[in-house]
């Protein structure tokens, strides 16, 4: 009852998932790896002492008989091809974001999956597995706060490196809220505006930071997300849902409480990796378990990947236009209900 | 060294101020009262056991030799006339909001005060005297969080009565943020938009609730204020200032911490009166003390009242237009620097 | 309707009360002052611009016709004599702690007051006027947590000066808990033990710090109070009441919330004066108001002062004996019910 | 590189560990089970779909060639025999508390392990793997609060079943603090007293609840632990360490923050199982990993099991005597340094 997994892409995130599946989670075995850099693939096997074979490319790895599922952690532009190949081969897929770099590409995956007639694909949006978000969702679903009316969110990083550009505030940062928030309130986005407040002096030349995204949903919920990637003080994710009867909010990241030098304080994380460590674990364990017990992954689908791609495109257009941009989603295929 | 005060308007708020000046604060004495309802004025004297004279109208009260300062707590449309009369008579004025019901009216008061050559007027915006706001201001002024970039605020009431209309979300509710926030960050408003999220089912027919006001300042600070006057759960004022180096936020209203029935909880106020009780006290004490020790009130000025009037007008226009409305302030007279 | 007050003792705390009564509170006037140092008394009049007379001693001040009430803020050993003289003269008394330096002295005051047949005396235990303690008391009295079973308390100062001795941890520090806690749970103390944990290196030579007092009440409630007067980090008062059905606890002192440099923090006070500023105000205002409206002060009585004296004696004995010391109170006179 | 495990005892906790090792953790395989009720053992295999053999007793299971390590989750009185047998066979042991039901039994295990010359045994005290306790320990070890002087702790359950007796407040409840606290501050216990406050009406007839244990360590640290197993409101574990320079405290259990019906609240757990779910996972994963990578478990040792046994005996004696009972530990064998 062990799920045999092939890993496509053995860079940083690929290695993290290899380590997680091998040393932390139950029920899977990595039997195949590949990378455009074949030495990197070999090195991953050595480092994690895997009993696995290096394949020359994604196609041959996907074709291997003993590979039940693939984990795609290559660079973004390669995702679409690997996912389509895996679907064609009837193999399960865990694909890190983005599912595809264009909305059209994501739509092609959706269509391929529908044509294959079986849900095979899970996209790596881990926030849905975070206990805080799950708590919010449970409260909303249990009608504890009535219908959601507004969401106030923030996504803050202490700093970003020099390659980080203004549009990456959408494609790398806001993308997590884009997926998590429509899932949270079970609604679809309708439009978006992006506003640029006074720029922080701590942003490198040319980078607009902070930004405020205002999304509106089909049900009229207004969502504001502050994106601030040079906030200096820490990695901080905030989400508050205001409903007709009450409000629920993510807890602060749990940490010991200190009284010292005139301050009552708790530490704030500086590194984003630790914020969702557990969500990453639960996400991949759920991928493995769901395939075994339900015959299909239960996490974010190709359709969610498509929603993220369309929404991100509109957000990036809104950065330039300064106007309200429509988020025009195709009608949701019954396959994904 | 007692400041002799005349009170114009002995309705609810007038009586509160009479009680406060008589039974809670030091250094003043109410020597004169008037009200369009003369019986109400008599009754106030009896209730608070004042050693005071009832005058037939504001003009005669202002003219009384022993009146050093007037507290104006009549209904809004009467404020401008009383303030102008007091300025003409060289008497100090504490005027409850609004200073005038129109921007033009507020401007007339500003001009009269400048012509009189002496600061006489304080407008009753009490939040500037709240310890929480003062703490935020001190942190900002001490450069503890760098330049402010964004403010996230909320003004929530559990319910409102049936006379409350959509525009009162500006003139009665947001008006407090309008005054407090530009003072807090020492900046001027440039424009405003109002958005209407999905309406709460708890609002009476015809009332748009909640609303989100997005103000932009001359320095590019973007301020979002959620106005939600049927939030059900309590009276709740939130204000968070995001700066280049850190964030400061109002504390929750202080209350004992309870562990009971599976909950760790603190009470939230249901009645707005208790939220700023102390700020009202400090505000009026400061009015009295400043006149005695500095010869002029030190609180919100006529100019602040003018800013509030112009800004509120733009906000109400924005409710209807759905567009970004410019907030066009006259140049600030040197008199108010 | 102004209460005329004479102040006996114009040292630091005397001046604070003079300032408070003159510049902050309503309804009283300081008409007389005295001090063993007559120049100090003259200076107080000048500083606070009082319309008051300097008397040569407490006896003559108490005898003055226009003195309705006295505030006793002389040094501790002088309190008993002044209080007894005021009772003899039928004047109201607000006496700073201690009411008397011995239990016998406190008992003499109790007896004198009973003999006089009228409640005249309030002891300056201000915690009963603190909003936090009042919130705890209300919750207990409303039976929100069932019968109290245990109290966990802490009284921490950042540092103390070199005159502070081990027994002052009782007479100057714990004394506030001694008064507040029996009032809070409406119970009487039965016994006490004092334990000395490992000493902090930050205590001066010879001072035992911290200490833990364990009090038991007639109803069997066990109260532990940590006394730690060199805790370095701030002035911090904690009180948690564990009841049969739930727990209530004092809130942290309210302060703005800051996110900065990897910390989510609130400031802790360093100076005890600010912790109970408002309680001091409310306490004295209540003294003034109660005399006017109810003909007697409603705060801590002479009997409470007696309880404090007897309990403090037992605590100091327990410091030396290391044993459980009985707190032997006389039967409560009906006069104080 | 898979650790083969035999499980002795397939009751509730045994099944939990079987599920955990099989479905949640990496790197182990359950190859053998036994139980005095052989059907229960068979049923565990069926339920968890194990590829494992049922053995007639602990001795035969321990003897099985393919068993690398045993998990002992039988009833307490059987632990000592199984542990000694495993040590004799040179097999690794994870033994649920208690290591032995008597101090003498625990000492026999210690002696056997020393004689075997290899650390083989880990006792199931999971709190050392809780992130909160680890955070406290790190702060203390980093000297962030100076030398510890006092600990204030509470162990509260909402209710207990009717079999729960006064001494189980030690052997089943306080036992967790007994292990965790000496580890936390790296100190040894010297003495203990138990006090009984007023009993809660919610305790069944005959049960003394709450209790307060006061432990003193060799370094003079005083530890108070409130044990309150009918607190009604929830399962709540508190631990505060007061040091010379500051204080650290466990965080509240993390949960979403709700504003509703006049309350700002977070849920408190009602079921103890959820409080340390993650600690149980980390504990067992560490057992498995440490054997593989370091050749010996790194968690609580037999010596820690012995300390717990001796200390619990003294605590139970103190319940009856009402006196300070000495905790007389043998000298720590160098083997455990």
State the main characteristics.
homotetramer; 337 residues; alpha/beta; Rossmann fold; Dihydrodipicolinate Reductase, domain 2; six-stranded parallel beta sheet; 15 strands; 37% helix; globular; inositol 2-dehydrogenase (NAD+) activity (chains A, B, C, D); EC 1.1.1.18 (chains A, B, C, D); Gfo-Idh-MocA_inositol_DH (chains A, B, C, D)
What does the model show?
Chains A, B, C, D: It is an enzyme of class 1 (oxidoreductase). Chains A, B, C, D: Pfam families: GFO_IDH_MocA, GFO_IDH_MocA_C. Chains A, B, C, D: Pathway: Polyol metabolism; myo-inositol degradation into acetyl-CoA; acetyl-CoA from myo-inositol: step 1/7. The structure is a homotetramer of 337-residue chains. The first copy, chain A, is of the alpha/beta class and 337 residues long. Chain A folds into two domains: 3-126 and 278-301, Rossmann fold (3-Layer(aba) Sandwich); 131-269, Dihydrodipicolinate Reductase, domain 2 (2-Layer Sandwich), CATH 3.30.360. Chain A is built from ten helices and 15 strands. In chain A, the strands form three sheets. Chain A has a seven-stranded mixed beta sheet. A six-stranded parallel beta sheet of chain A has the order 3-2-1-4-5-6, with helices on both faces. The radius of gyration of chain A is 20 Å and the shape is globular. The two termini of chain A are 29 Å apart. The mean pLDDT of chain A is 97. Chain A binds chain D through residues 1, 21-27, 49, 131-132, 135-136, 139, 144-145, 245-251, 254-261, 266, 278, 285, 289, and chain D through 1, 22-27, 49, 131-132, 135-136, 139, 144-145, 245-251, 254-261, 266, 278, 285, 289. Strand 12 of chain B pairs antiparallel with strand 13 of chain C.
